[in-house]
Amino acid sequence: MLDARIPSGAINEHWDNHRDSISLVSPANKRRFTIIVVGTGLAGASAAATLAELGYRVKAYTFHDSARRAHSIAAQGGINAAKNYPNDGDSIHRLFYDTVKGGDYRSRESNVYRLAQLSVEIIDQCTAQGVPFAREYGGLLANRSFGGAQVSRTFYARGQTGQQLLLGAYQAMMRQVDRGTVELHTQTEMLDVVVKDGRAVGIVTRDLVSGEIASHPGHAVLLATGGYSNVFYLSTNAMKSNVTAAWRAHRKGALFANPCYTQIHPTCIPASDEFQSKLTLMSESLRNDGRIWVPVRAGDTRPPDDIGEPDRDYYLERRYPAFGNLVPRDVASRAAKVEVDRGKGVGPLANGVYLDFDEALRRLGPGTVRERYGNLLDMYQRITGENPYETPMRIYPAMHYTMGGLWVDYNLMTTIPGLYALGEANFSDHGANRLGASALMQGLADGYFVIPYTLGDYLAPHLGEGLVPGDDPSFVETERRVTARTEGYLSIGGSRSVDWFHRELGKVLWEYCGMERSADGLRRAISDIDSLKEDFDRDLRVLGTSSTLNQSLEKAGRVDDFLQLARLMCVDALHREESCGGHFRVEHQTDDGEARRDDANFSYVAAWDWNDGHEPVLHREPLTFDHVKPAQRSYR
Amino acid sequence: MHLTLRVWRQDGPEAEGRFETYEAAGIHQDMSFLEMLDLVNERLLTAGREPIAFDHDCREGICGSCGLMIDGRAHGPQGSTATCQLHMREFSDGDTIVIEPWRATSFPIVRDLVVDREAFDRIIEAGGYIGAPTGSAPEANLTPVPKETSDAAMDAAACIGCGACVAACPNGAGQLFTAAKVAHLNLLPQGQPERWMRVERMVETMEEYFGSCSNHGECEPACPKGISLDNIAMMNRDYLLSKIRNRKLGGY
Ligand SMILES: Cc1cc2nc3c(=O)[nH]c(=O)nc-3n(C[C@H](O)[C@H](O)[C@H](O)COP(=O)(O)OP(=O)(O)OC[C@H]3O[C@@H](n4cnc5c(N)ncnc54)[C@H](O)[C@@H]3O)c2cc1C
Ligand code: SF4
Ligand code: FES
Prior knowledge:
The complex is a heterodimer. In chain A, about 35% of the residues lie in helices and about 15% in strands. By secondary structure, chain A is an alpha+beta fold. Chain A has 3 domains: about 10-20 and about 30-265 and about 400-460, FAD/NAD(P)-binding domain (3-Layer(bba) Sandwich); about 265-395, Succinate dehydrogenase/fumarate reductase flavoprotein, catalytic domain (Flavocytochrome C3, Chain A, domain 1, Alpha-Beta Complex); about 475-620, Fumarate reductase/succinate dehydrogenase flavoprotein-like, C-terminal domain (Methane Monooxygenase Hydroxylase, Chain G, domain 1, Up-down Bundle), CATH 1.20.58.100. In chain A, α4 crosses α5 (about 110-130) and α14 (about 520-540) packs antiparallel against α15 (about 550-575). The longest helix of chain A is centred in the middle third of the chain and has 27 residues, at about 360-385. Chain B is an alpha+beta fold. Chain B folds into 2 domains: about 5-110, Beta-grasp domain (Ubiquitin-like (UB roll), Roll), CATH 3.10.20; about 120-250, Alpha-helical ferredoxin (Fumarate Reductase Iron-sulfur Protein, Chain B, domain 2). Chain B contains 8 helices and 7 strands. In chain B, the strands form 2 sheets. Chain B has a 5-stranded mixed sheet. A two-stranded antiparallel sheet of chain B has the order 6-7. In chain B, β3 and β4 (about 75) form a beta hairpin. In chain B, α5 (about 175-185) packs antiparallel against α6 (about 195-210). Chain B starts with a strand and ends in a 7-residue tail after the last helix. The chains are: A alpha+beta, B alpha+beta. At the A-B interface, α3, α5, α6, α10 and α11 of A face α1, α2 and α3 of B. The structure holds flavin-adenine dinucleotide, iron/sulfur cluster and FE2/S2 (inorganic) cluster.
């Protein structure tokens, strides 16, 4: 039975009680511990900075050439916090409630409550670091609203919120690098966790420039390595985002939770051709002022300006009067698919819906629209060659975020003692669907405010223990395997590029494990993935050597791990005989096509055991709801 | 479109580099520049030749990873556009395109089109932050910041650290990048306590790694984020003042 170590007492006291009761490491003793932080995105950089400030010796790793380039940099829209500055009725409880409901009652209440509590401190922290959040003329912080909420609680820095938050965390970390408390390893990819006597004792890395494989011992290992959306090949994630760190940990014994909970984002630019390498997100904040519509008549190919009001269907406003264009992402995405599947898609490939700023331009004027969304609209124009101030934008859902990830307890520890997962890499707070502007909040809560406390609880009893030396058999053996795996890709000598396999995998997953899933489709996907993996092992072609920068070789390892993860996603999706959040099984829907949960049988976290590569074994963590009563979500 | 590419190939930091010529047929105008290179790489691999190494990640102009000299212009012909956002509709059938890495002594070539921009991190380390240890922050709205100030700070903070400004500069100077960070932090009330230390340390670290600025002004047009030369003026002024302020009692 999985023990999430949820504290006792009233939910609003869980975190305080927990902090009061867990073990601490004294300031003087902290420097006797070496903490490995893999990943320097929002979660990793904030953790590395904070742990170093507290006195730990931190070693941080990223495969980027600078920590400032992590995928977090691309987040556009904003970060939630229950500050209630607009005085519109927000509170910690309401943010908690919205997040549990938005997650379709598949998240842990206690974690979410803590997240809502910490949200407030995050804004204070980031403001103190100089994050230039948007402000009102009076000089106070501005807010906007986001999908899934009826209050304005989202803080933002133009359309570059992730960039500014990441730069804040990166700068705080670089300050510690300057002081010698963080040892930063850039262009270094972690390729395995080292486990000895059941505990995480370090990592093995490859230097991406020299190819050198090396061991790095630590008293604890924190993975803040991001999400796995790129398993779909086309997604909104940065090209290098991958699952390798988490997957390698999984193979070493860390359970992987809810892999099938993936999120499709409703507002992305539709693909334009087969060479498309990634999809570009248009921040969901656009739904605040943009109106979504399709022609009433299928196959109506008139230009949008020629389609009069009576011939337009503002389907979200029609179907969901209470939330309108601001329904949660999963609802908005599926609704778009329904319209496009009915032949109402717009654009040259009929693969999009309109997002129209016409009404907003008239109501607010071009100046205000430009101020709020200027950089997004410019980006759209650069990519499509169309001017959104004159003609409606075209959007379509794309793979965006992964709620699933390494299973962690309330302390963010995986099932391997000493190994933690932070940020998008864990499964913790978003249940089956994440609300907009909540990932930045979670990554920073984990890094700035949770791990600095909870880590001590594990470390305290190990005070005085030295590091496991890098020449210990556990390291030597892991290094040997990593080297063999890397050299193995070079020696296959097949005919197909790693990108080819990645693209094929993406097609299978999008078709069968994307916006809609069915038992038949998932079975088919599993067998397709199995044969693709066989081909990969036989027919991959990677040129060059392992002793220089070799980008295809890097990618080979990542795609290999994606192939394995993809299978587990399908297994998970097949076993979950219900629809919830981002997981929509066609067999389980209401009469009007909404997701139908099965609380009696599936109100649990599905945490999978690798089982040495045999059929994965399921462990369940039951979910209880004492504060938010699960209901059929309704945004009408 | 059919294009001819002349691409810089270099096997490693110490190796001799050379231009190689590739024919790129069947290029669609809706492809991005990097998608065009993806396709060329796919074809090279099929022909048994190693793909061209180039850096990229977000492909939406925000991470600052990409950066190519295209026909002698940093990030290519389109203004305010990072390489990854450049689309092939900016080129014409039959064009010959010369593709090189950033050329600057402070950015050594790692391989082919990939350079090492670590010197930028050294500048940030030297003072490109506000010292606000986690947990010590006051309530955010206790310090109002005039909207104009906050907007100006945000304009400067938009820098993506791509290095085009350095690559475009005949002296390989790092002024625009450094000034953007100095201005972002020195404009804000939160940045005042460290203002003079910050600018002094950052400028002097910059000078260790980068060439000196002789006001060519090539950096501004090359910058994909429209970082203004005014930031450099502010940095220079603050740097001069820092020499007085940072002396004992100089600030009083
Ligand atoms: C386009 C876009 C817009 C978004 N907008 C918003 C928004 O408005 N609001 C919001 O709340 N969320 C948003 N999100 C989601 C949010 O940005 C991410 O969930 C979040 O930034 C993830 O942060 P992270 O720190 O967990 O991981 P990441 O930022 O992905 O960082 C991962 C780090 O791990 C490193 N790494 C990974 N594997 C290895 C390895 N094996 N070895 C060494 N290093 C490794 C990487 O180098 C990187 O430093 C958006 C996402 C996208 C794609
Ligand atoms: S100032 Fe402009 S060109 Fe220079 S690094 Fe920043 S974004 Fe790039
Ligand atoms: S790839 Fe990120 S800015 Fe170009």
